[in-house]
Amino acid sequence: MQVSLFPNEPIDPKPFLKWAGGKTQLLETIENHLPSEIKESKEIDKYFEPFVGGGAVFFYLSTNYNIKEAYLSDINKELILTYNVIKNYPKKLSHRLKYYYDYYISKSEEERKEYYYKIRNDFNKELIDFDYKRGSYNHVRRASKFIFLNKTCFNGLYRVNSKGEFNVPAGRYKNPLINDKENILNVSKALKNVTIVNANYLDSEDLIDENSLVYLDPPYRPLTNASSFEGYSKSDFNDDSQIELSNFYKRISNKGAKALLSNSDPKNVDPNDNFFDDLYSDFNIYRVSAKRYINSKGDKRGEINEILVSNF
Fold first, then answer.
1. Which partner for 144 in 96, 103, 152, 265 could form a disulfide, CB atoms 3.0-4.6 Å apart?
2. Residues 6 or more apart from 188 whose CB is under 8 A from it?
3. What sign does the dihedral 147-72-202-44 (CA atoms) show?
4. Crossing angle for the helix pair 90-105 and 136-152, nearest 10 degrees?
5. 254 near 212, Cβ under 8 Å?
6. What single DSSP character describes residue 51?
7. Residue 211: CB partners within 8 Å, gap ≥ 6?
8. 119 and 145 Cβ atoms separated by less than 8 Å
9. pTM to 2 decimals?
10. For 176-210, what is each residue's pLDDT tens digit?
């Protein structure tokens, strides 16, 4: 029997953005690796997802488990602003997205491209003095631009330059789902009682305790130079960052928290690369199959392994 946060109002929230490394395809695998007591009771006392990204894991768990407390965070301030806008102003957001959709869909391919770059330029100009802490109307406008760019840019990527400016080129779409009104409302309901903050994953450490389930989905360690995705934020998540994260994982494990962590598997390209095997040698490491792109050429794409680390 599935237990929902909203038993009298069934909902089925899905990620509202295209997001690199999204976990939709791995939800069943991740669920299979949940602690047995959670799978049996269908309840989670405290849930933490400090690299929330597209939120596929949280949305799935919020539908199928009773989460008593949830804490979602990410270092990407545009992403977190958009989460909070959907949480608090879903109808206003949907209204603005409808405007973008109606205008975009009525134009020729060349006019769509011009419109995309106009919105991207406006979005970047606002960086200079935009107040991320105040102003519901301005936040709705910015979140709508963020979603529009995500739905119409090349491959739904999020990338910024050294100035923090969004620099992904325009994509080519016949009928992009810019205004998914029903899902926006479902996501808003799923986020109703959730704490959502723009923060480094380390900021959640003091809140995590023995009653917590933590899912960590950090920027993946690149398998090849071609697969390296630069620019999620202005700071890089390099090998030193991965090591720092492994120490965080050990500390919350010592607190008694149940933790799962996803990352790339270096052994896809180098069987002798034991980077993660060494970092997480004290824990269970599972290799799970996923469809990912590790090469720009189509014939080099397909199923590869990822790692899933468990401390229970």
1. 96
2. 86, 87, 88, 90
3. negative
4. 40
5. no
6. T
7. 45, 46
8. yes
9. 0.92
10. 999 999 999 999 999 999 999 999 999 999 999 99
